[in-house]
Amino acid sequence: MLGFLAACVEDESEAKKDIELSWSESTFPENDLPVTTGSFTIDVNWAYTQWIIKVEEVLEGDDFIEDITPRVAGSENFGNTTTRVAIRYKANESYSSNKIRLTLQASDGSGQKFEKILTQLGQEFTPLRINLNQDITHQKISGFGGGNMMWGTDFLSVKEIQLAYGTGTGELGLSIYRIRISPIRSDWPAVVNTVKEAKKHGAVILASPWSPPASMKSNNDLVGGYLLEENYDAYAQYLNDFVQFMAGEGAAVDIVSMQNEPDIQVSYESCDWTIPQILNFVKNHAQKIQGAKFTASESFNFNQSYTDQLLNDPEALANLDLVSGHIYGSGLAPYPLAEQKGVEVWMTEYLMNQNSGADINNWNRQEAVIWEETMGMLQTIHTSMISNWNAYIWWYIRRFYSFLGEGEQGTTREQTLRRGDAMAQFSKHVRPGYTRFSSGISEQRAIDITAYKGDNKIVIVLINKEESSIPALEIELPENYTSAKATVTSLNHRQNEVSISTENRVGTLELASKSITTIVIE
């Protein structure tokens, strides 16, 4: 009996060594899987082994396998078995095909492994068409810009000005430079050289004060308080003195503001102004500022009531060249009264920084996170344009969350950042003096479009907010135009050239997902 048992154990051991594993190729779909959701079954043949089926690698697009049943099966105790496996897949919502590597592998360490490439078709796509109507015109563009470092003396260097205001490869093409008017006269010379460099590139200089001199204020302090009415004339003269000083140094200021954010109380250099006080100053004193245009009132969230009074008062309006404001929290909307009065509307400060102003450690360095916020920045620029605003000015040009690095959060001085490249899609190609005109796309999609003309060029800016690329976008070249070129900035591009095929005067290009693309037609 013991001999019989030993023989049985030996026979069973020998049987278990005869491991088998394979899948039946003939049970796989013969063709690419359709774009719609669906399922199919395959047969796995096995003996005396456990196994697993999984998506080993995504080769193109996305993993479209939704469920594999059973995903893990088999046994070391059974031989010659066929298991039918059901594989369910998701619909492909994109226009690109999906491709994966599916594997069947023994989990007993024998190393047996089988692979199968599965492809799912993408959505069929009818090319979108850009529609242009140059007969319907909108606002004139005054430019796009950013701010100097407002405090201290570590202002933008010659190379940083070149990167920010130059229009060469990799440069940003800004055209407006915002600087601070210090409430201390002895500070004024420090800003001269950086302004001179910007002027070499044709930059328009906007000078904004955060506070009048402390001696002119109710609290004799640079923080808070208000300008005493008996000092309105003296303050107007102070602003005029700055304009004249800069002009004398060969660093002329083009536009001077009366106050940065008069409607918010903060713990840094500031001054409070009521609406009647602003009207009084602009109406009765602003004319003393000579040699530069004048703007008011840079409200924290472009509260139009702070400038409506100026536009509705003929004497105040005579001293006002443009209205300005910021868009923190709200205020990004058309300004019909300003348009009616023929006064330009400028957005003079905004920033997005993942709340790292509260704590620098809030900044997430992941490029995907930064790009998602940058798409938000681009949305504000687009909305400014379709609101008929004339200029858009970002906060600091050089900051880790801005256009040029400054050495913090992994950035490097005198190098452009991807967010700067995104701004350049507007600023380098939509130049001061260009006019926005009517444009659209043949199908309603999550794509923002604006179009501009000037210098015998047509510039089209497209922000694709969709998760998928747009395989084909067509533009018919208008009469008297013969060529088209384009650049793109996205998570994977930085002002990269885009291929445009032109046939029978129709240009065709692909729009990358979550991107901004600028087409220039000449």
UniProtKB/TrEMBL annotation:
Q: Note whether Hydrolase occurs among the keywords.
A: yes
Q: Does the keyword Signal apply?
A: yes
| Superkingdom | Bacteria
- SUPFAM superfamilies in the record: (Trans)glycosidases
Keywords linked to the UniProt accession: Hydrolase, Signal
Q: Which family does it belong to?
A: Belongs to the glycosyl hydrolase 30 family.
Protein name from the UniProt record: Glucuronoxylanase XynC
Which organism does this record belong to? Belliella aquatica
